[in-house]
Design a protein that fits this description.
- This protein has 3 domains: about 60 residues, Irregular (CD2-Gal4); about 190 residues, no CATH class; about 210 residues, no CATH class.
- The radius of gyration is 33 Å and the shape is globular.
- By secondary structure, it is mainly alpha-helical.
Length: about 575
């Protein structure tokens, strides 16, 4: 016998017939269940021990109703999310169910799903004049104009940027951190434009603001930096700009910040590819004043415009070189600056827009002349380029090649000592950290190749053997200097927020010194080298909280040590 009455059974003999309502009860109607319409309560409501309502009004949704709706949304979003992943579509918009979480929410946040972002990519039209590439001379002298394509700012970008105060907060943090070591954007021009009520901001400026937010963003535990929502939105936005033929200096600056982020967070091969993109785009803009190019941007209108273009191009060169320093596969081009080409002006004059205080120095000037941190970074770039050229001079006689390397080591050492003196006297030691570290990287790079020549090379000429001794001594000397540099960086970053002012360009030098000291420890068990190695590891570990490339370098050191320990144990 059933424990529950059968709603379809007829009345039992001798019993009065059950009275029926004119319509199904509210609960059955909402759940789309068959109702027996029994009065005073239907069988289902009686079984569930709940109030049975036959009224026509619709009651307010209950907590249970919201949970049921949310579960259905999560199921639907899961299906759509799987479909979007198969189709390679972006997923960054918040969903209705995710918005239910929070202080008044009903549970943990559901996985986010983003509907396909088709709107920005619909009806894309690229009207960029091909003559700029097919016949640059005719393009320039014919004064062919480049139309600015109409682009709607993607919704996810607007959402990530937030309101006006949020954008302003991003700018304040950017100019107080990233800008101090990589000053390519004119704060003066940007401030003046934003205060002008007649000025209209375009999509390229929204991209720049987004990339500024990306540059100041910090790694999150458990989330790959390549999965950063701001990063993915920036990459899509850059691709949209490229697809529509948008060519502005602001777009280049934005993607340069993307490349800096990719290098700092060790996102490869993206950093390598983005650096090459910036070189090509800079050529397209015509800001590579060292060589002829199509002047797509036209002539600069003011001194600030001219200096901003120059600084942006120097930024392109520096980033392109640093992203490949570890692989030593830098692609040498004909765009190396000449001796008479100008360096960036003084950083303070640049920030203030004071042309009268902007003394211009050239690439071939005396490196002992006092200059600001960013021109120093450019000088370190020049030195590193000379090192790469020396290494690639395979057809040079050994005597000539080694002599050039020795002279180059002395020149770089002079620059390193000068920057060290300037950093010690500066109010902010970290402002000189990037040029100092890149100079140390150049010294390590010039020595590393000659410190480990093959046996055939050593026996072939006495110059090779002598150069090996000199290179080993040079590595030990520069490694000691880098250890001192690491200790000063630690002292200058006592608080977690201080790490935001450290440039990611310093990591290669720290790793090079650590690898050299680890080698010395393995060779002779030197106690001083072991202490130096621990100091460098400590510095990389701290910086790894801000820049993941430091953590990657540290992981490489640990892997090398493990491999050596296993090999030693196996040979015992």
């Amino acid at each position: 016998m059933s424990l529950y009455p059968n709603p379809t059974a007829g009345p039992v003999a001798g019993e009065e017939p059950v009275q029926k309502a004119n319509q199904a009860c509210m609960s059955c109607r909402k759940q789309k269940r068959k109702c027996d319409k029994a009065l005073p309560a239907c069988a289902l409501c009686s079984r569930m021990n709940r109030h049975c309502d036959y009224s026509d009004s619709i009651p307010a949704p209950t907590h249970e109703d919201f949970n049921a709706l949310r579960n259905k949304l999560m199921e639907l979003e899961g299906r759509l999310n799987g479909r979007a992943a198969v189709m390679g579509q972006p997923t960054s918009f918040p969903t209705p169910s995710s918005s239910l979480s929070g202080p008044d929410g009903l549970g943990p946040q559901a996985p986010g799903f983003s509907p396909p972002q088709e709107a920005p990519w619909q009806n894309i039209q690229n009207r960029f004049p091909a003559i700029a590439f097919l016949d640059a001379e005719s393009f320039t002298y014919g004064q062919v104009s480049v139309p600015k394509p109409p682009i709607d700012i993607p919704l996810d970008v607007l959402e990530l940027l937030g309101d006006g105060p949020s954008v302003q907060a991003t700018l304040i943090e950017y100019f107080s951190t990233i800008h101090k070591t990589f000053p390519i954007v004119s704060q003066k021009r940007l401030t003046q434009n934003m205060s002008n009520p007649l000025w209209e901001a375009g999509p390229d400026l929204a991209l720049l603001f987004l990339c500024m937010k990306l540059a100041i963003s910090k790694p999150q535990d458990g989330i790959e930096s390549s999965q950063n929502l701001v990063y993915m939105a920036a990459k899509r936005f850059v691709a949209l700009m490229e697809a529509t033929g948008m060519v502005t200096l602001v777009v280049l600056q934005a993607n340069l910040l993307v490349t800096l982020y990719e290098y700092g967070q060790a996102i490869y091969p993206a950093a390598w590819m983005s650096a090459g993109w910036c070189v090509r785009y800079g050529n397209l803009c015509g800001i590579n004043e060292f060589k002829e190019a199509a002047q797509v941007l036209g002539r600069p209108q003011t001194w600030i415009d001219q200096e901003e273009r120059r600084r942006t191009w120097w930024g392109v060169l520096v980033i392109d070189r640093i992203v490949s320093i570890g692989s030593q596969t830098h692609i040498m081009t004909s765009q190396e600056p000449n001796e008479g080409d100008p360096l960036p002006v003084d950083d303070a004059a640049w920030d203030e827009g004071e042309m009268g205080h902007a003394y211009q120095r050239s690439v071939g000037g005396d490196v002992t002349d006092t200059v600001a941190p960013f021109p120093r970074l450019c000088q370190a770039y020049i030195m590193l380029g000379k090192v790469f050229m020396n290494h690639k001079a395979d057809n040079s006689p050994d005597t000539s090649k080694f002599s050039q390397a020795s002279q180059l080591y002395l020149e770089i050492s002079v620059l390193a000592r000068k920057i060290t003196e300037e950093a010690a006297q500066a109010a902010d030691y970290l402002s000189f950290a990037a040029p100092m570290a890149l100079t140390f990287s150049a010294l390590c790079t010039i020595c590393e190749v000659y410190s480990c020549p093959t046996s055939a090379d050593i026996s072939k000429t006495p110059e090779a053997a002598a150069m090996q001794v000199q290179a080993l001594d040079g590595l030990k000397t520069v490694s000691r200097s880098i250890v001192d540099f690491a200790e000063k960086v630690n002292l200058a970053t006592q608080h977690p927020q201080d790490l935001d002012r450290v440039s990611p360009l310093v990591m290669d030098a720290l790793y090079s010194a650590a690898a050299n000291n680890a080698w010395l420890v393995r060779e002779n068990g030197d106690e001083n080298s072991q202490m130096a190695l621990e100091s460098l590891r400590h510095c990389l570990r701290r910086l790894g909280a801000r820049w993941r490339n430091a953590a990657e370098y540290l992981r490489i050191l640990e892997a090398q040590e493990f491999t050596y320990a296993v090999g030693t144990a196996g040979s015992a």
